[in-house]
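Forwarding the complex inputs:
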Amino acid sequence: MQQDRTKHFTSVDALFLLFLLSALIGVALIGHLAYREGLKTEAAKANAAILKDWFDQLDALSAKGQQSQLEDCRDDGEKTWEGCQAALLGEQGPLKSVKNPFDANQAVIGQKCDRTDLNTRGLVVIEKGTPAPPGAPPAISFGPMETGEKLSKDLPLRIMVCDKGAYALKVAEVKL
Amino acid sequence: MSEATEGANHHRHRAPPDWGTVPLRHWLYRWLLDAETDGNHQAAVDRFIAFLIVANLAALFFEHVPAIYGPYKDWFHWFDIASVAIFTVEYLARFYLAPEDAEFAKQKNPRLSYVSSPFALIDLAAILPFYLAAFVNIDLRMLRALRLLRILKLFRVLIPAVKEFQLLNQGRSFRQKVHALVWPGEFGGRLHDYFDTFIMVWVVVSVTAVVLESVASIHYILNLEFIILDTIAVGVFTLEYLMRVYSVVETKGFRHPIAGRLRYAKTGNALVDLLAVLPFFLEAFLHHLFDLRFLRVFRLLRLLKLTKYTGATSTLVIVVKREWPVMAAATFIMLLLVVLTASLGYLFEHEAQPDKFENIPASIYWAVITLASVGYGDISPVTPIGRIMTIVLALLGIGIFAIPAALLSSAFSDQLRIERETLANELYAMMADGHISTDEQETIDREAKRLHLSRDEVNRLIEKARRERELKDDHTGLTITKLVERPDIAIERYRELVGQMRQIALMVDKPTMDKLVDDPDRTTAFERRIWRSLRDDIKN
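Prediction (whole assembly, two chains):
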C-alpha cells in the first residue's frame, strides 16, 4: 500500500477511485431499494386513500339522507364489520381491484399492524373509536375493529396503513 | 511557503476608491465585482448569489411536492420572479461593467466579449427561459426543468477556486491533492473552504430532514423525498469519509499506510463520520433480522460532524480534561448525596407509599429529580419526617449540583482567556518586524474565528501588541525601577541619554547656554560640572 511519491497518479490511486465509485454505486443501489419499498408504502397509502374517499362520499350521502350503495355497509345497527369488509372488497366495492403492494397474495384489509409480522405490511387497517369519559384525554381512543362489530351511525373510524416496517401510519379519521 | 502558494496568494490588495474620486462605472466595478480589491462587497455579492442559487434549487425540489406547492403556489411564483429579477440585475451589471474587467478590457469590444464568454452564457441560460415563456408557449414542466440551469451559475464561484487549487497543487500527487481538498492546510485554498461549506450544508439539510421525519404529518407527505435526501446525504458523507481515510496518511502522525489509517479511524471525528453513515447500511442489510428503526435516531449524530469546523468543542474537551480531578470529586459527592437521599427517602416513605418508594434503586429517580431542583412532582414525600428531610436535602442539592456547572463555566472562560492571551503573544511575536504579512493575517483570521473574536477585538489585540512592541523598542517608556532591574537595557538607556546630551552640547548656542548654566538659581554644582565636561569633550 506504500505509494510511490514520484508518480502523480498511481495504481493505488486508481484502486481508491474504483473503491470510491463502488461505494457510491452501493449507496445508490441501497437508496434505490429503499425508494422502491417507499413506493410500495405510497401504493398502500393510495389504497387507504381510496377507502377514505369512499367514506367521505358516504358522509355526503348521509347528509342528503341517503344510504350507502353497499347494502352490507349500511349503519342500521344490524350489519357487521365482517360483511362490510367483504362488500368493500367485492365487485361493487371501492377496493375491488386493489392489491396489497408488498405481497399481492396477502390481504388488503387487516385488523392491525404488527411489527413482528412482516406479512402485515401494506395492510389497510380500520380502527373504531370509543369516546372516552368526559374530561379524560384523549377524547376518542381507537382500537382494533372486531369482525363481529355492529355498524352504527356516526361510528368514528380511523384509517391506518402498515408501512414497509409494518408500522402503522395514520391516513385519516372518518365517520361511518 | 511554496512558490505556487505565493503565486496563488498574490493579490494586488487595492483599497476600494472613495465616492467621487473615480468615474461611476469604475467605482461600481471596484466596489461590487473586483476580486482584487480588498474590503469591497465582491465576496458578499458572490455569497448572496450562491445562496440564491441554492434556494432556487430547494424551491424547485419542493415545487414537485403537491402538498407543499399547492397551498404556497403564489409564494413560489413570486420567489421565482424575485430570483430572476436579481439574476437579471446581476447580468446587466456585469454587462455594463465589462469594460472595467481586466479580462475583457483589452478586447476590441469588451461588452461583446463578455456576452460571448462562458460565464455570461451560463448567466443568460439561467434567466432566458423565464423571459422566453412570456413570448413563446413553453410547457411549464419544461420551464421548471430549464430552471435547473441556474445551478450552472455556481461555476462562476467554482471555476476560479478550481484554478487556484490546481495552481497551489502543481506537481503534487493525486493523494496529496485529495488531502488538500478535505483537510485544512496551505494547499487547499478556496476550494477546500467550499468543500467544507458543502459538507456543512448537507449536515444541516440531513439533520433537518431527520427532525422533520419525526413529524408524522410531514413524513406522510414527504416519505419518498426523505428517502432520496437521505441517500444523497449518505453518498456525500461516505465520499467524504473515504477521502479522509485515504488521504490521512499525508498528515503528520498518520504516515503509515495501514497503522496510520487505523489510528485515524479510531479518532473521535472519524468515528462520528462513520456513525453518520452506518445506520443507512445496517438498516439496509440487517432489517430482515432485527427491527433497526431505532438506528435512525443515530442519524442525528451527523450534527456532531459540525464540531470539526468549530473550536468550541475542542476547548470544552480541554476544559473537561483539565478540570477532571475536581469534577470527579464533585461527581463523587453528588453520587454520595443521591444514594443518601434515596436511602432516607426509602426509609421514611416506604411504609406510607410502598408503590412509589418501592426500594432504594426506585427511590433514586425521586432523589435525582429532587436534588437537581427539577421537581416533576409525580413522586413526593407525604410523611412529616420525609418532608423535613426533603427540605434539607433539596437545599443541599442546589449547592452540590451547581458545583460541576460552576466549575465548567469558570474553567471554560479561563481557557478562552488563556487562548486569547496565547493569540496576543503570537501577535506580539508577529509585530517583531513591524508589520503583519499575508500569511500572518491568515493565521490571525483563523485564530480569531476559532476564538469567536470580532474584528474590533482582533484590532484591539493587534494595537496592544504594537504598543507593547514599541514600548520594548523604546526604553524611555520604562520606569527607573524597571530599568535598574535590567542592566542590559539600563546601559542602552544611559548611552542614549549621554548621546542626547552631547547632541544638545553640539547644537545649542553655547554662550547663552553657558550663561544659563552658570546661574546658581537654575543649576546645581553637579549639573554645572557635567556641562563643562561635555563642552570640554566636544572641544577635544
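The interface with chain A takes residues 171-175, 216, 220, 223-224, 227-228, 230-232, 234-235, 238-239, 242-243, 246, 249, 257-258, 280-281, 284, 287, 291, 293 of chain B (CB under 8 Å).
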